[in-house]
Amino acid sequence: TPLLEVRDVTFTYRPTRRDQATGQGIHDVSFVLEANASLGIVGPSGCGKSTLARCIAGLQEPSRGQILFHGDRVAAGDDERLRASYWPRVQMVWQDVVGALNPRRRVRDLIAEPLHLYDRRPQEQFEDRVLELLDMVNLPAALASYHPHELSGGQAQRVGLARALASDPELLLCDEPTSALDVSVRGHVLNLLRRLREELSLSIICISHDQQAIASICDEVLVMENGRGRVEALGA
Ligand code: ADP
Ligand code: ADP
């Protein structure tokens, strides 16, 4: 069984106003992601990328079709089950992930948050684990006592990545992981993602407008248009 299978997934938004058209969302999207593989998702604004990502993340239930993780159906709404066996294994990274977190907490607490949720080790070991995670993303230990506003864009994105890695996920769902960064820093974050994919046998789904990002970390790409998608190989 593949790591993730998206099988004929349709998600239709209900119109909230009478003059809104129905049928927006995504239609019959299918793809298969094997372990340690990497898929890009591209397409113009409004084509359905975020809708698909929310379905994969288990945040909304498809109107039709199924999402399978190791062959098991991902059932949005069953938060207890998702928290126990899905969310720790499928982590999200998005642009400005750290900016969205509590600005009063320090980097060490932001990274340790998922440990409190998902890690079975005794709490005394969390500090060591935080330092290990910082090291994994090439950040110095001293950053543990910084607050989010003291970080550069590249550092913040690495902290977001360290936080996502805290639960030892199998799949990273990245939504525009480099788009908020200076061009000069993007390459570093992409190198890091590539290295982590190799070292941790991660699978990656990466939504991005950044051609360089898709080309450097993905093997295949799901090209979306008007809610539909087709998979294309990326010339190696
Ligand atoms: P993308 O992430 O590629 O920009 P989205 O998934 O956000 O695309 O949107 C896909 C389509 O669904 C668009 O036509 C958008 O207007 C519509 N849509 C997105 N979110 C909602 C919502 N909450 N209510 C109604 N329509 C929505
Ligand atoms: P910033 O934090 O300034 O936004 P980065 O975190 O990407 O940018 O990088 C900070 C500095 O560390 C840069 O000068 C870069 O050259 C260096 N650097 C980043 N990643 C690596 C790496 N994998 N190996 C060696 N040096 C690196």
Descriptive keywords:
globular; alpha/beta; 32% helix; four-stranded antiparallel sheet; binds adenosine-5'-diphosphate; 7 helices; 10 strands; 236 residues; six-stranded mixed sheet; single chain
Strand content: 15-25%
**Spatial sequence of strands, sheet with the most strands:** 6-7-8-3-9-10
Task: Please state the CA-atom Rg, rounded to the nearest Å.
Answer: 18 Å
The total of beta strands comes to 10
Number of helices: 7
Chain-averaged pLDDT? 93
Distance between the termini: 25 Å
- Summarize the amount of helix as a percent range: 25-40%
Which structural class best describes the helix and strand composition?
Answer: alpha/beta
Low-confidence stretches: none
Bound molecules: adenosine-5'-diphosphate
**Looking at the structure, what is the overall shape?**
globular
* Main sheet characteristics: 6 strands, mixed
What is the string of helix and strand elements? EEEHEEHEHHHEHEHEE
How would the blueprint of this fold be written?
Blueprint: E1 4-12, E2 25-33, E3 38-42, H1 49-56, E4 64-69, E5 72-73, H2 79-85, E6 90-94, H3 107-118, H4 126-136, H5 153-165, E7 171-175, H6 183-199, E8 203-207, H7 211-217, E9 220-225, E10 228-233
Parallel strand pairs: 3-8, 3-9, 6-7, 7-8
Antiparallel strand pairs: 1-2, 1-4, 4-5, 9-10
Helix pairs in contact: 3-4, 3-5, 4-5, 5-6, 6-7
One adenosine-5'-diphosphate (ADP) binds at residues 138, 152-155, 158, 185, 188, 191.
